[in-house]
């Protein structure tokens, strides 16, 4: 199942054309699995990938992991069939590629609703995620994030974005600072998740580690990963330290104690505790639980 | 239904199955299977393939399958793809024909 608030530290990319990777995808502990029908699939295999992902969703047990499918755009002959197949299979989240406008989101939403009715699913049960991969999409990120109640998150796709900017990706990520910040604020203003882009060089652990620390500090919920080896690195960085957990537990206890005594103003070790501190404490406890 | 062309789907990679479909002259369906698990699962794999052919009311087709340890879901998917291609419907297929509850 899925909802707006679940943990999304890692979203593992799985090409929809590879039955071995699909079958193994649930064993690596990613919070979400994203089956790709778009860029990683050649035009000649769009139909077979769609069948593979459909049958896998119908027959395999993926446990509690969130299941996402990146469909082809509606400007291709494949987009609508992808959406129909994924709705029929009961995917949790449909991820739109290359989202640039509110209309892109609305057009997919209409089709999802149409196929929910056709296949007897509750209206609104299939969620959406929008990937923003261009300067226009970044400029419209706020409107995109608010475009549908089905949206559980928005993500940045950096490879297409930096090409659109006429630059390349660097180790520091300086070229993505504006886009990441814009996307993050758009997501937070809509109360949905913000997901960071992939890091393509699976051998470069040092720079991957640096990038994960950067996006965590910026405020992202998590990151798309292209190799299972990247998952434990992200999870470790997103796992709170013992000090953070101890403090969070103390905050929660102080709140409970104050509520029991009917106190309006709450303090811990002489420092006032207000709502943002409580919200952060709850988030830390959730992250700690998820890391077990 | 009648197939309009020979077709194939799938690869010879591990965990996959390659399916080739063509018409035959005898009017009934024939399935030839090579599999690394033929002794244990040969009948089950043929039954899965046969089930998809029956669902599409196909008669008089020969299926050549080379299995590399594919799961049931992969077998069904590859046969569905090969059938749709053989029917010439791989682009504008009606998904409700393929959709099943289990």
Can you lay out the helices and strands and say which pair or pack?
The complex is a heterodimer of chains A (292) and B (102).
Chain A: E1 10-15, H1 19-24, E2 32-36, H2 46-59, E3 66-70, H3 79-89, E4 93-96, H4 102-118, E5 127-132, H5 135-139, H6 141-145, E6 151-156, H7 158-165, H8 177-190, E7 193-196, H9 205-218, E8 222-225, H10 231-238, H11 242-261, E9 267-268, E10 271-272, H12 275-290
Parallel strand pairs in A: 1-2, 1-8, 2-3, 3-4, 4-5, 5-6, 6-7, 7-8
Antiparallel strand pairs in A: 9-10
Helix pairs in contact in A: 2-3, 3-4, 9-10, 11-12
Chain B: E1 7-9, E2 17-23, E3 30-35, H1 38-55, E4 61-67, H2 72-86, H3 95-98
Parallel strand pairs in B: 3-4
Antiparallel strand pairs in B: 1-2, 2-4
Characterise the protein shown here.
- The complex is a heterodimer of chains A (292) and B (102).
- Chain A is an alpha/beta fold and 292 residues long.
- Chain A contains 12 helices and 10 strands.
- In chain A, helix 3 links the parallel strand 3 (66-70) and strand 4 (93-96).
- Chain B has a 4-stranded mixed sheet, with helices on one face.
- Chain B is of the alpha+beta class.
- Chain B is built from 3 helices and 4 strands.
- Chain B has a single domain (7-98), classed as Ribosomal Protein S5, domain 2 (2-Layer Sandwich).
- The interface between A and B is medium-sized, with 22 and 28 residues.
